[in-house]
């Protein structure tokens, strides 16, 4: 890495906002370096409810601008990444003592018409047949509407790949330890396993998520424009509790909602919670009270009752929300705030808040704010640009059939996982492999050496957790012995790659 080179932009943070800004900037012709202290999407961005949604409940808090933007972005993102994002129907069982039917119908009318809607179906009323209903007898009707499901971590990786292919340098496991501005230029000190080094940049973007104010105050020695409040959101995963591909949005007595979402064909994903978090964002974990809360809401609606013994896995993250001094975490704004300041005439853009659905618009807004500092900045481009994997007129059904013919000895479930992970780039992952035997060692559950090597070489995967939790979601199936074998292989692979670089 040329330490004398001056980048146009250094981005701190490899979550969805950081990679979104890096991808947008690189596509406009800027030279960009992004650093992330851990793996891509290793914190907030992989701890979401896996949804691209307008935010139906935000209407109650009168966040019309955010909802309108998010509703429009659903269709934009579906077109950009059809391998990662799919339409999903949601059913809200009606509980009259919580919200009257007229209020829900009014909200859904706005939901149908606030944003541009071309692909997604509108809302309607549904009646539950008491003989076949999943719900308790007193729940007799509900409301149905459309939103989208997404593989959140892979959406982050796809944006990082797009940034990289437009010339950005993506440095994972690389921590920014300090930055100083002098004569219009930032000198940024970075640290990774190879040691400490400095890079210089015209603009510094702070997309550190939960660490956004800590970075400003501790690393930059500056005053933060806003404080943030960390809100913990936790999910539980249980074996699939109902057939079909629809999700449910469940109302609770505290006016919050919880989703029950079909997940990876075999599971039901249940979440999320909303509670203040005061600890280390690196160490967030589900609490006993959150488990009780989610089980209670499910059991209040469904005939099938869940217990702790049904829980296969849990995950938790913290949402860094811009502190609007609300007493209710659920009522705090999910909108984003971009703050542009300068130190020694060197621009610093800090990102507060935001949500997965609006990351592209956030990145575009960031570039609009930074435009005065770059005289030759190219125009907006991301709205129509396909993400890696969506190229070549991507059609999941056609690609599955094509791969089944090409690799007839590969199970359909594996082909479908490949297609919904890599899209049209599955051919790059497969390389010259034409038979299962050519895929190399199998580490379990149809994870082969060919795929592992590809993830290490092309998607910044380093550890078994990177591969199993964020790149493939196979962590729900792997046992400790299988993880140990994968770790052993990765250790040998990294040693071999290091020797090749040294030679």
Automatic annotation (TrEMBL):
<feature type="domain" description="Alpha-glycerophosphate oxidase C-terminal">
    <location>
        <begin position="382"/>
        <end position="476"/>
    </location>
</feature>
<dbReference type="InterPro" id="IPR038299">
    <property type="entry name" value="DAO_C_sf"/>
</dbReference>
<feature type="domain" description="FAD dependent oxidoreductase">
    <location>
        <begin position="8"/>
        <end position="360"/>
    </location>
</feature>
<dbReference type="InterPro" id="IPR036188">
    <property type="entry name" value="FAD/NAD-bd_sf"/>
</dbReference>
<protein>
    <recommendedName>
        <fullName>Glycerol-3-phosphate dehydrogenase</fullName>
        <ecNumber>1.1.5.3</ecNumber>
    </recommendedName>
</protein>
<keyword id="KW-0274">FAD</keyword>
<dbReference type="InterPro" id="IPR000447">
    <property type="entry name" value="G3P_DH_FAD-dep"/>
</dbReference>
<dbReference type="InterPro" id="IPR006076">
    <property type="entry name" value="FAD-dep_OxRdtase"/>
</dbReference>
<keyword id="KW-0285">Flavoprotein</keyword>
<dbReference type="GO" id="GO:0009331">
    <property type="term" value="C:glycerol-3-phosphate dehydrogenase (FAD) complex"/>
</dbReference>
<comment type="similarity">
    <text>Belongs to the FAD-dependent glycerol-3-phosphate dehydrogenase family.</text>
</comment>
<dbReference type="InterPro" id="IPR031656">
    <property type="entry name" value="DAO_C"/>
</dbReference>
<keyword id="KW-0560">Oxidoreductase</keyword>
<dbReference type="Pfam" id="PF16901">
    <property type="entry name" value="DAO_C"/>
</dbReference>
<dbReference type="Pfam" id="PF01266">
    <property type="entry name" value="DAO"/>
</dbReference>
<dbReference type="GO" id="GO:0046168">
    <property type="term" value="P:glycerol-3-phosphate catabolic process"/>
</dbReference>
<dbReference type="GO" id="GO:0004368">
    <property type="term" value="F:glycerol-3-phosphate dehydrogenase (quinone) activity"/>
</dbReference>
